[in-house]
Amino acid sequence: MAKIFQVSARAGMTRVVEPIARALLRAGVTPNAVTVAGTVGVLVGALGFGARGHLVAGALIVTLFALTDLLDGTMARMSGGSTRFGAFLDSSMDRVADSAVFGAVAYWLATQGNHSGVAAALVCLAAGGLVSYVKARAEGLGMTCNVGIAERTERLLIVGVGGILTGVGVDPALEIALWLLAAVSIFTVGQRMAHVYRQAQQLQPDGQA
Q1: What is the pTM of this model?
Q2: Residue 181 Ramachandran class (φ > 0 left, ψ -120 to 50 alpha, else beta)
Q3: What confidence tens digit (pLDDT) does each residue in 112-147 have?
Q4: Which of 53, 102, 106, 138 has its CA 20 to 30 A from that of 42?
Q5: Residue 169 annotated in ligand binding
Q6: What interactions and quaternary structure are annotated (predicted)?
Q7: In the chain, what are the domain boundaries?
């Protein structure tokens, strides 16, 4: 269901993003520049607002700039396809942005004395890195790994909703969202490892254990 929702949402967003992408390309802006600008925006939202307790503003800014993930991809497609460095930069900047988001959440929860929430944020940070690493490592070995219920879009959506609800007075919402995200992220790691294991078994030459 998450995959269906994500594909439908992306299809709708693409119709909005394409005119912006064309305008930026005509102005000489490169997809890589948009990737870096989006990451800087996420850092501002997470560290400049979220870490200081301005959760609603932080979540909205992070969400806005996270959408550049779709914009830079659309620009790359329109300009002839993503380059190897562009794909590398995009993946690297995603990890920087994710670390800033969950680091900022953990810091703010620590200032509130919410040790359980800090633990949840740290689990999300570690598990989110593993979700991405398992996929990258599988693809580096020539296999696919496009499975899982908690990809990057879903992870940011869950923590964003939790942050907004806490920011408007629903105090436990962020901690609940983080523990939910921790659970689905760990489950996604398991899903991906099982998926890769099955592929590896099928690719393994006969007679090898």
Answers
A1: 0.85
A2: alpha
A3: 999 999 999 999 999 999 999 999 999 999 999 988
A4: 138
A5: no
A6: Homodimer.
A7: 1-203
